[in-house]
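Researcher: Good morning. I'm working through a list of sequences from a screen, and I'd like to move beyond sequence-only analysis. For each chain I'm collecting a predicted structure so we can compare shapes side by side. This is the next one on the list. No need for commentary yet; just the structure.
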Amino acid sequence: MMAEIGSGKKLPAGLYVVATPIGNLSDISARAKEVLKNVDLIACEDTRMTGKLLGAYLIKKAMLPYHEHNGSLQRPKILGKIAAGGSVALVSDAGTPLISDPGYKLVDDAYDNGLRVVAIPGPSAVVTALSIAGMPTDRFLFMGFAPTKTQARTTWFEAEKNTAASLVYYESAKRIAGSLRDAATALGPRPAAVCRELTKKFEEVVRGTLEEIADRYETSGPPKGEIVVVIAPPGKHDSETAGSDISTEALLVAALKHMTVKSAAAFVAEVTGEKRKGLYARALELTAEK
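Model: Good morning. Structure tokens for this chain:
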């Protein structure tokens, strides 16, 4: 059983995977702070970034750089320290480690060596964006960072054209307009949301179709800050571009295969413009008929 964190006692040996703020430092959990205070070592993506976080909370702790370029060299050191009875925290520059950040191989090797792995959950840009994008969340696919070249990016999107889930990916500000344009080419005029500077002073969510948002950024130029893009699942907007005519009823039936009644009604209301209340009532009827 895990010792009480914050007691000032040495933590049990293990690898502690610690989520840190993605912007607002106040989002760090009390548990995360106490773990960072009490571990023997912090393995971090960038000691400068983690140093700023530790400094904000007056935490002085030995740090070891751990990233994709030095992982093979540092893993034996980290695993050896834990095997000898030490406690090591793994953090990324921001958010939850392993979510498009280094750490997978370290966690995998820890398990292979019979070592303890402990999750200290907290902020994640993916989940934060999904929570405020206004897109269906019953099913979603996190795709990581988009390719940098147009052809590769278009192919990347086309591979998920029929995936019945919201698509979530990271993009740089300078490539956002081209990225959205390529997504529109591959996926059609789907609803989307560009979530920028999450939890920070200038947090912003821009919603519209992929083409509309691409037009916006082509006109205004690249925005500032870090970006998460959320794209709605396939729906009526896709079938219209193919020249077919899918009824609202058929769309609702399809949505109910992958979503709750409430989410299915909300999604169909968004893509068709029909009243959510009526769609919800019909969705309940369709569910009862099964």
